[in-house]
Amino acid sequence: MMKFPLLMLLLCALISGCQTTTKQSACDGFSRLTPSLQTSVTILKTDRPFANQIVSHNKFGAAQGCWE
């Protein structure tokens, strides 16, 4: 019965060294949304809340320095 706790301890020690060392950024996973003019007009006419979300997304990215 004592074999399993020892095995578990060894496995935990082994995987504890498996951590990432890269720094994360607020920009990870973001890119600026740039719909075409025709798409922008369609979105503005049919789904104003979504258009507002696109603007908010782009403003957030610019404020974080992800793009200009």
TrEMBL record:
<protein>
    <recommendedName>
        <fullName>Lipoprotein</fullName>
    </recommendedName>
</protein>
<keyword id="KW-0732">Signal</keyword>
<feature type="signal peptide">
    <location>
        <begin position="1"/>
        <end position="20"/>
    </location>
</feature>
